[in-house]
Amino acid sequence: QIDSARLWGSIHETAQFGATAKGGVRRLTLSGEDKQVRDWFRKACEEAGLDVHVDALGSQFGLRKGRDMSKPPVGIGSHLDTQPTGGKYDGILGTLGALEVIRTLNDAGIETEAPICIVNWTNEEGSRFAPAMMASAAYVGDFTPDDILSRKDIEGTTVGQALDSIGYRGDKPVGFQKLGCFVELHIEQGPILEAEGKTIGVVDSGQGVLWYDGKISGFESHAGSTPMPLRRDALATLSEIVLAMEAIARKHGPNAVGTIGEAVIANPSRNVIPGEIAFTMDCRSADGAIMDALDRDLRTTIAEIAARRKVEVEIDLVWRKPPTHFDPKLIAAVENAAKTLGYSSRRITSGAGHDACNLNTIMPAAMVFVPCKDGISHNELEDATQPDCAAGTNVLMHTVLAIAGV
Amino acid sequence: QIDSARLWGSIHETAQFGATAKGGVRRLTLSGEDKQVRDWFRKACEEAGLDVHVDALGSQFGLRKGRDMSKPPVGIGSHLDTQPTGGKYDGILGTLGALEVIRTLNDAGIETEAPICIVNWTNEEGSRFAPAMMASAAYVGDFTPDDILSRKDIEGTTVGQALDSIGYRGDKPVGFQKLGCFVELHIEQGPILEAEGKTIGVVDSGQGVLWYDGKISGFESHAGSTPMPLRRDALATLSEIVLAMEAIARKHGPNAVGTIGEAVIANPSRNVIPGEIAFTMDCRSADGAIMDALDRDLRTTIAEIAARRKVEVEIDLVWRKPPTHFDPKLIAAVENAAKTLGYSSRRITSGAGHDACNLNTIMPAAMVFVPCKDGISHNELEDATQPDCAAGTNVLMHTVLAIAGV
Ligand SMILES: NC(=O)NCCC(=O)O
Ligand SMILES: NC(=O)NCCC(=O)O
């Protein structure tokens, strides 16, 4: 059994780095707050006797030796960055839970056959730089490190510049740390476990993601003197797209969602009809065929709206992550650990994307979910209980022991 | 006849203060660029022998003596501030046209019976600070100067601070300069004169304006893991409001417009459902009953949308300007001047608000319109011809001479 109080303490100690007035965390990837939590994490890893390295994209790796160093390490961990108005658990539980596993094994003097490597992946959230799960995507070869290093945030700062500014452009090449498999603990970020009174979600699959950058070019003109029929209003166009996206997602049933999270009017003024808007779209489904249908429906509908309103709408697919089907053996290991420990559990699909989904494309991976209050995440009010967090970490530890061998 | 080349030269010389790459002007009220054009204007007024004063809200007044100084001056002028992506003519033609009238009278050695006062009103555009036509509104008593001085821009800078920062908080109390009447020359900012091939618009009325500040409070949550039916999406709410506003304006016929020009998502992120949006609304009609109906329909519809989507929407009416009916005698004077000079003309309603609309509430006022290309305004592509600008200025001069007496 892990030390529930120590885990809880770590979570709340690090929550000070970017703490918000509403009890959440604002710790954008590669920001000053991110540097603070990274420094804390490095020190904690070193104190736990781990061999710590940082790769060229800033991901932190802490290796615990195994008896058989020819075996690839069992990877565990998650991320420590947050949304602009994020919570204290998303990613953090999985990273500090991994640290807690190491501390517990150390205290108990348990050696494993295979080594264990705990990881803090850079930019999982995708809020400052797209795509999300950026570093693990590069790790599995979905993007080249150079491509990722050149990605820009809204201020034009590149990933490379941001890494340098906090001193976290590591000296190890991306992929230097081989892993044999990866298990990630995370809050569910959805309402199912809580609603069904289950403690552990055995994650067997994850939704695919489509991310788009969009730009609408209408025509700025005077709000008072431009008759309604002569307008080429970029905001009215966006409004139709937002509602169309909502209708399309609903049409494809419970297994699809669609969101426009960002929309910025260029040079806004009360009495000017918006002429130009940049926006983003996020569409998901656990079913690849539905993802294709979402993409098709969106493009057709947007083209119709643009033609009718005589505006230009450009849509650029910047990220496509297919649905994830986790490794059956690892899923069974998680399920077994939950059962052995006496926690109630159920199989579950992840609505959110996770680093484990990327890793699953080149190695066996799986995830452990615990409930979060009202299914709320990406919100400062995000909450989870100490017993649930401890339960998830215990399941993580027992899964690791089963895979790594004692 | 005014000096067309000199007028054109003034317009293009001052267009350098805030010139944009696309040939427009970005000269927000009380900005550094606004200071530059104000300094230019003061110098030009002094060189034309005018007695220049600045009031507590920064409006510039240049007085040309008349034979009978007991008579209240005939006021002419407009504004030199622009939209964020504005043109070279909106307001500028009327202000520099007024200067050109003075220069022409000086050159011709013409004395008038009543004095003439040319004015550059502060913040006509209403883009940086609300309401529009701010200084003339205070001049006629619609707002107290203290109220106006405390208005804030989006950065939190007050009008008072902005005035001080460019050294244009004048020593004269608002209203110190009495005027007997006011005539304003302006580009039409709409398509009618050009379409009908008329040179002069004799403005007999102006649309009323409703300005609202709005705020939507939904709930931030995860774009991937929040099912569509559980969302309280602020942007989807705004989208319904935008389209409802469009439908309501259209329903009330050609004599109504409605625009949402500003909308800002708080803490936007690609994978977060927008939780909070601040926005503005601008509704207009030349018919007071239609204005009331617009307000009523909007409030009802917004309440319905908010209830259905389980979000809060606050709507705050920050400005209500009733429709304007200009002074019949002054309208006739403008019409007569156009006829005498041989320009084609027609009566017209102003779609935009103007300082003359404010002044009309306490003194006789009227306006002269000239065509602008494709009716485009509040756009960097705004354009007008030199002959039309000269024609309008000639009509302004002859109207002034008729009122002031030679
Ligand atoms: N787990 C999580 O919130 N990841 C962020 C990436 C996404 O799914 O949008
Ligand atoms: N003339 C003009 O564009 N005024 C700005 C105020 C408004 O009508 O919105």
Give a written overview of the molecule.
Chains A, B: Keywords: Hydrolase, Metal-binding, Zinc. Chains A, B: Belongs to the peptidase M20 family. Chains A, B: Zn(2+) 2 binds at residues 90, 125, 378. Chains A, B: It comes from Bradyrhizobium cytisi. The structure is a homodimer of 406-residue chains. In chain A, strands 1, 2, 3, 4, 5, 6, 14, 15 and 16 form a nine-stranded mixed beta sheet that branches. In chain A, strands 7, 9, 10, 12 and 13 form a five-stranded antiparallel beta sheet that branches. In chain A, strands 8-11 form a two-stranded antiparallel sheet. In chain A, helix 10 crosses helix 12 (386-404). Chain A has 406 residues and is α+β, with helices and mostly antiparallel strands. In chain A, a hairpin with a 5-residue loop joins strand 1 (51-54) and strand 2. The first copy, chain A, is built from twelve helices and 16 strands. Chain A has helices spanning 4-14, 32-47, 92-108, 134-139, 145-149, 159-165, 192-196, 234-251, 288-309, 328-341, 355-359, 386-404; strands at residues 51-54, 60-64, 74-78, 116-120, 181-187, 200-206, 208-217, 221-222, 257-259, 263-265, 272-273, 276-285, 312-321, 324-325, 345-350, 365-370. Helix content of chain A is 36%, strand content 21%. The radius of gyration of chain A is 22 Å and the shape is globular. Chains A and B meet through strand 8, helix 8, strand 9, strand 10 and strand 11 of A and strand 8, helix 8, strand 9, strand 10 and strand 11 of B. The complex binds N-(aminocarbonyl)-beta-alanine (2 copies). One N-(aminocarbonyl)-beta-alanine sits between chains B (90, 124-126, 132, 189, 352-354) and A (222, 224, 271).
